Amino acid sequence: MKKILVTGSLGQIGTELVTKMRGIYGADNVIATDIRDNGSDVVKAGPFEILDVTDAGKMHELASKYKVDTIVHLAALLSATAEKNPLLAWNLNMGGLVNALETARELKCQFFTPSSIGAFGPTTPKDQTPQDTIQRPTTMYGVNKVSGELLCDYYFYKFGVDTRGVRFPGLISYVAEPGGGTTDYAVEIYYEAIRNGRYTSYIGEGTKMDMMYMPDALNAIINLMEADSAKLKHRNAFNITAMSFAPEEIAAEIKKHIPHFEMSYDVDPARQTIADSWPNSIDPTAAMEEWGFKAEYDLEKMTVDMLDKLKTKLK
Ligand code: AKB
């Protein structure tokens, strides 16, 4: 049985991943950590510790205390926040990652951390972006993600740490809201559609980005961690995606269920610039071939589920 330490457990991915992994591996075998305690189920339903990921000593101490054999490192600033405070992003995103990789090396742990479509830049091929291609991102978040991908590869080749990772697209869920990302509009739109029947998009018409529904993202993490190591040629930074759409396409899908729904635009230049530098759609073939990645939800199926779940949540 795995014993897993998760950083950033109260974030958008962590909140659901911790719960799912506790169901699979046992509540006591998933140690949730975060910089704050929000009193949620993640905190109450199993071991929880306060951890600032820039504190290398505390991270090592907690991993030793619980004798973990796996580290899932999720704590990071997302793209829009990172762009507002690039130095903080460098220190937190890279400092946290190095500390987590060092802990994994010292304690011989398996390791997972997500990269992102943000690891690509304006000179990357925009459509069906290949697994191995030009990566010259123009955001601090992208610089962090490319550096992180390389660092994870390095820890595998140099020290034999079993590092694994995916490049996540925008993640959509009804449980925990994202914060500070460029793709967050695709979550907000569902909340606003139900609350007010209207949404003002900060991303402009025609701007396509890859997206994925959270259940597929959680399965991807667990399946990659469980995959046969011998079959992995890439290990880190696998392209994965479930759908690609522009704001008007998700709005049209919502309108099928909420006919009075209206969308308008008030483009935020900062987030639009980031979105414009990212691919329209990425090619997940390597992930499909090397560890059987498959997404269950497309835009249509996700929209039915999101609206259904949010209607209950927002009652
Ligand atoms: C963001 O928008 O920053 C994230 C991401 C795609 O990495 N959701």
UniProtKB/TrEMBL annotation:
Domain NAD-dependent epimerase/dehydratase span(s) in chain numbering: 4-240
GO biological process terms on file: L-threonine catabolic process
CDD domains in alphabetical order: TDH_SDR_e (cd05272)
UniProt superkingdom: Bacteria
Gene3D superfamilies named among the record's database cross-references: NAD(P)-binding Rossmann-like Domain
GO molecular function, one term: L-threonine 3-dehydrogenase activity
Family: Belongs to the NAD(P)-dependent epimerase/dehydratase family.
Designated name of the protein: UDP-glucose 4-epimerase
